[in-house]
Structure formats: structure tokens, C-alpha cells
């Protein structure tokens, strides 16, 4: 007997509501077939079956609140539980390939707290021959891009999710005909007869999320007044919070904007281009605005004389590169200086969880990286234990992976503090926005020669403005200023890092 339990729900999420059961006791289930859907205050999570068999008992009913690792159901395994997989049937009007079989292409695991993705690009079309592990399509989530390889060699016989479609984790993307006769399998064409089926699917009764139904009752709304973004148009709690959907008169209405768009003259409209925001850009926009709305954000500034770092770097950069195979940059100095300061001012490395403050005895340093798709923040785990060479190598590796869209979810989660370097783009001064739930972010800026007073004399020094944005709910002004001064001292005299001063 296999137990189906509540999976990890994401950072700082400990419980969920059972929204919908897709199976009932006695139903046959296949491995990875979706059993139920859980709803948290942030995302919707689908729970797959870990084994093939028969759903024996449902322990947590719809509407119940369950905690992480709680028992949801049991699945009975064994010969009597074996049942053919529904998806293994050939498409309507199609004969199975002689001596071959069909293989389903499924949406892979998308990462913690990510339950859906958008099909970005198909590299193959129906009828194309594919090799095992050859890339079929690319999925785009609100954080990373995921390439989907072919699970078997054969012919791509059917695409079930076209480019632009939203798919759920564990959902079905395509079908591959493999084995003998696969090369002769005809490319299926979209039959007009399938259109009514789609209409039937859209018009059937949909079980909306319990929390959404309750909220609609409280607001006096009907399902037809709210646009559902869940599976098959299912209405989620966040859909109700967004308010009633605008009903278009003839054409679909554009995405609602924060400020209504003024009428555009016809001669100007022809010179404009409207492009839908990527999921990554939508998430960046939402998270940055949420940060401003949630945290009591404040920024303190200072400036640092970079002569010490630049002199040390100039003296040892050739030996450093020869020994370690990587260039000595500025970022490793800032990472080490911040780690040093974070242990002296631990509240800058902490976070708020409800009514608790979580102090961290480690530093997972996030380093903001600009990519063609938007800003991402890969994390250097246990940066306080890394040397200069290890930091430079890891930053270089993560930077390349970020620009290529190859970062995994794990590489962008769990950061405790962030450094953002706007100086590479020429920024002289800015106020960085916090990366929730972190309580601090350091902004680096352009190094510029400026006249400064030194021992009663005006001298020219390479100066950089530093900006620390912090959450005033947990970090007081004294702590923020102390942190920034410690960073300044360590950079102006790098020997302090060796002496732990």
C-alpha cells in the first residue's frame, strides 16, 4: 500500500487546502497521474500518484486544510490493481504503429512552488523524426526556462499543447510513436471534428476552488463574472481578489493595466508594437511591487574609496588568474565584505516570518544578474565559507547559466542577502528594491574619479557610492548604518578581512 502525502509547498508555506480530487476510491491510477489539487495562499499544487494501482482511500476530503507531509490518500498496488493507461490509446482515426508503441511527453517538474508554465517554442512539428533526449520544446515559467527532451526515439505524432498554451506540472505535451513503423507514422492533422469536443470541455461544469467560492459569496459575485486562471478555467482565490472580469463587446479586452491607457490617435497606433509580457517579467513586476507594499523599506547611503581594492587587484590579478584559472574581479571583495558585516549585524541577514524573526547563521548570497529575459538572482550558498577564487568561479558560472536561461529553480531560491551591481551599466546612484523575504540588499555603483578631502588636501580618488536598502520593521537605522560602515572599512582596507576586524 503506497501513501500519498502533501509535498513541499514552498518557502515559508506550511499548509494548504484540498481543492479538488480528480479520482475517487476504486479508480485505477497510473504513475505520475494527477490525483488531487492543493491550494495555498500563493500557488496551486497538483499531487501525482507515486505508483500505479487503484486509489484505495481518500483521507483528506475536499475543503480540508492539510499540513506538509500529511497523509492525503492510499493507493493499492499489485497485479489486481494494474490498469491500462488511458493516454496510451492512439489518437482518434489513427492506427497504432505496427510493432511499436506510443510514448507520452510530459511536463517535467518545474521546481518548488511552481505549478504551471507556458509553452514557449516547439523545435519539432508533427511528423518529424526525433532522437532520444533531443529537445522537443521549451517551457517558460515565471522564473526560468525549461527545455523538454524526447523520452524516446521515434516520430512526433501529435502536439497537445501549442506554443502559447499554459500547461500544468505533470501535464501531457505531446505523443511520440516509437518502435517499428514509427518512421512511417503519418503526421496527424488537426481535425475540425475536434473543435466541438473542445467546446464541450470548456462548457462543462468546473469545480472552482473552495476558497474562491467562499470569497465570491462574500462579494456577491457569480462565476461568470470572474475570469479563472486555474486548470480548465477553474477560478482560484487570487482570481476573485482581482475583481470581476471585464466583458468584451466584440473583441477580447486587453490585459488590465495599473493606469488606464489613454486613447491613441490612429497615426500613432500604426507605429506601436504591443508585446505580451513574459511570465518572468510579470513575476518581477509583481514581486517588486509586493516588496514596496509589504516592507517598510528605507535606504541609507555611503561612499567608499576603491583605491585599496584596485591596488590589491592590480598587484595580484595576474598571479590569481594563473593559479586559479579565473579573473579577480570586484564582486568577490564585496561578497567577502558583506559576509563579514552580516555576522556583526545579523538582523540584516534575517527575515520576518509571521510574528517571528528568523536569524540565519549562514550567508546565502544572492547576486543580481541582468539577462535578455529580465533580472534573475542566482544564489551563492554558504558564501561565508568560500574563498575569493571559489566566489569568482561560482559567479562566472552562474552568470553564464543565467544569460543562457539554464539556471535551475534551486539555484535561485533560499538567498538571505542580495548584492546588485548597477555600476556595470553606468549607474552612479540608485535605491535598490528588497528581494522578499530578505531584509537587506546592497547596491553597487559606478567607480568614478572624484575630488575628496584627505588630511586637509584635495586629492582625486576612485570613489563608489554604496546604497543599502533595508526593511525598517526588523533593521533599525543604527544597524543599517553600522553594516554599511563595516563594508566601507573592509573595502578601503582589505587587510581587515584577513584579520577579521
Descriptors for this entry?
501 residues, alpha+beta, OB fold (Dihydrolipoamide Acetyltransferase, E2P), Chloramphenicol Acetyltransferase, seven-stranded mixed beta sheet, four-stranded antiparallel beta sheet, 10 helices, 27 strands, acyltransferase, lipoyl, dihydrolipoyllysine-residue succinyltransferase activity, transferase, 2-oxoacid_DH_actylTfrase
What is the element layout, followed by pairings?
Elements: E1 2-5, E2 15-21, E3 28-29, E4 34-39, E5 44-48, E6 53-58, E7 65-67, E8 71-76, E9 100-106, E10 116-122, E11 129-130, E12 135-140, E13 145-149, E14 154-159, E15 166-168, E16 172-179, H1 194-203, H2 210-219, H3 237-242, H4 266-269, H5 279-294, E17 297-305, H6 307-324, H7 331-344, E18 351-353, E19 356-358, E20 365-367, E21 369-371, E22 374-376, E23 379-380, H8 388-403, E24 417-421, E25 440-444, E26 448-454, E27 457-471, H9 477-492, H10 495-499
Parallel strand pairs: 20-24, 24-25
Antiparallel strand pairs: 1-8, 2-4, 2-7, 3-6, 4-5, 6-8, 9-16, 10-12, 10-15, 11-14, 12-13, 14-16, 17-27, 18-19, 20-23, 21-22, 25-27, 26-27
